[in-house]
Amino acid sequence: AYSKGMTQKLGLAACFLARPDLYVLDEPMSGLDPRARACLKDLLAAERALGATLFFTTHALADIESVCDRLAVLHRGVPYFSGAPRA
Q: What whole-number distance in Å separates Cα of residue 5 and Cα of residue 7?
């Protein structure tokens, strides 16, 4: 009965409540409004600053530049690039 955005927020909240050392997230920004996206980016950056490892998929490269220090680009399942977001 919840919208896609609300369902995404509930799933993310459950994930972050556990405070794991490793986060594996599939399209965590999907369905979120701009404000929720900004809040999630801040939360991901804070978890990373505390030493957590973030591993997530996204099609929006702008989402990773502010959070990640490394990325990998796959094309048809084959690694095409691995390095810093700016590269």
A: 5
Q: Can you list the positions of beta strands (E) in the chain?
A: 22-26, 53-57, 71-75, 78-83
Contact by Cβ (8 Å): 2, 26: no
Q: Is the pLDDT of residue 85 over 90?
A: no
Task: Give the chain's mean pLDDT.
Answer: 90
Distances (CA, A) of 14 to 6, 7, 33, 73, 87: 12, 11, 19, 28, 34
Per-residue pLDDT, 69:
87
Find, among 12, 45, 13, the residue nearest to 29 by Cα.
12
Place of tokens 């220090």: 69
Whether 85 contacts 64, CB under 8 Å: yes
Assign 59 a pLDDT band (cuts: 50, 70, 90): confident
